[in-house]
Write a structure and sequence with these properties.
Helices cover 45% and strands 0% of the residues. By secondary structure, it is mainly alpha-helical. Keywords: Amidation, Hormone, Secreted, Signal.
Length: 95
Amino acid sequence: MAAARRCLSLLLLSTCVALLLEPLLGAQGAPLEPVYPGDNATPEQMAQYAADLRRYINMLTRPRYGKRQKEDTLAFSEWGSPHAAGPWELSPMNL
């Protein structure tokens, strides 16, 4: 009984730690918008801001390969019934 209680408390503790660390680890994936240096910024600061802004926009608008377009997928209601009789073609594998 004591071993089960110890395992349960260890599981609860590890779950709490994982939930507390999730926002810290997940925040690194999303880039932060660069801060505008102001109207009185030096040309070097403006160049750095432009580079950071370009990198930020490229990160947000990069293509997501492997994702399907909305029109490429069928809705569940368009699948039809699996029991509906329909034309069935013989393939060489069925012979």
